[in-house]
Specification:
alpha/beta; Rossmann fold; Zinc Finger, Delta Prime, domain 3; 3 domains; five-stranded parallel beta sheet; three-stranded antiparallel beta sheet
Amino acid sequence: MEEYIVSARKYRPMTFDSVVGQSALTTTLKNAVKSGKLAHAYLFCGPRGVGKTTCARIFAKAINCEHPREDGEACNECESCRAFNEQRSYNIFELDAASNNGVDQIKVLMEQTRIPPQVGKYKVFIIDEVHMLSTAAFNAFLKTLEEPPQHVIFILATTEKHKILPTILSRCQIYDFERMTVANTINHLKMVAEKEGIQYEEQALAVIAEKADGGMRDALSIFDQAASFCMGNITYQKVIEDLNVLDSDNYFRLVDLALENKVAEMMVTLDGILSRGFDGGNMIQGLAQHVRNVMMAKDPQTLPLLETSDDQKAKFQAQAQKAPTPFLYKALELMNQCVNCGVTFRFLRTGTFFRKGNRIYRIAEEEQEEQARRAGVDYTP
């Protein structure tokens, strides 16, 4: 049986051009390779799963390539490139600062900087999660960073730039990586699905992209999970079931019912959502986000700002045509009050729901006053 490799590793970019969503940054790095104007230290910062370590590896390979291409990419044919691809390069070192954050580990690393490279021009040191270094380790590293040997280049990567000493920041070229847009993530997932022979619905990929929250690695991990659950046919209904995501149709239905002033049906819909185990506070926040999207869909200029599939954009446009702008502003105001103040939800038939902190309490009608008093909230008969 062929060994299974997760998509995040199998489809990890190997060239600058295959990196998703960081075109300005990769162009700058390629130009640095072409011109030979290389700094002695780089800092790659940004959220998780956006390509910091991947770009560091691609950049390190291109720096040491003996015959780089005209566009700044590595040739993948010289001895240095082959050694890197086969994971036997002695010129590129990686250190995980999360588990090697002591001053002794940094001193050992600094000793290695004294030895010139055997093949290629530079020794490249990639330090991942550099913000995890201790203060003593940072101070030990600082002296070498101030006056590094000519054959040494440092590439630092971090998700928390604010934790790095200003004296370190001032000696690095800083590159801020962008979060992945939903559109870029969907397009990449489509490519992976087609190569793997997996059928999909675009709306299902949109749910995965939104769930990943801007991280491509997270999106690929969720994609693998959904593909396993769906047995190679990723559909919208199966994805929301697997990920336990509230179906967006509930939000469309609640807004439609509110526009038609059907309060009883709204209460039944809300009760059904809560009875399925969804948190009331999260539901209100999701509904507020939905109303915001409807407002953006009212204007053709702001419609492209919606990070969702084309089918969803069409549904938002249709609802925006029915919803007056004052109604949407009032709905947002009420939902902000719910989130910030813990408003009591009253059901005429099923009793009272109230929120305290992050918990939703449901009270039988005959116990409403007593339990509300014990929980320390105002009772509304």
